[in-house]
Amino acid sequence: QVHLVESGGGLVQPGGSLKLSCVASGTIFSIGYMGWYRQVPGKEREWVADIINVGSTSYAPSVKGRFTVSRDNAKHTAYLQMNMLQPEDTAIYYCNAAVSHGGPYRQSYWGQGTQVTVSS
Question: What local confidence, expressed as pLDDT, does residue 103 receive?
């Protein structure tokens, strides 16, 4: 069993910054994919960014140039640095990870989410 816990959300003014963290714990042999998603009530969850290995990152067009995803494999942790935040970035942010327990397959896990609110 693996648990993902996101933290770092909160209330920030437009133009401000926040850094989210996602820590994975439990029976972990290795973690491949780590991604960030967000969801607004009443809307579908949308992909924000992901990182497979250091240097292999991808971003949604709406956040490219403002958000930076990174990871610390030794700590089983992913980060999302969010700069120049705008009200439309307001959402619950979720972490997703593909975890190997030692076998040939990876299992997908989700965190419980952390609220980000951008408002003046």
Answer: 83
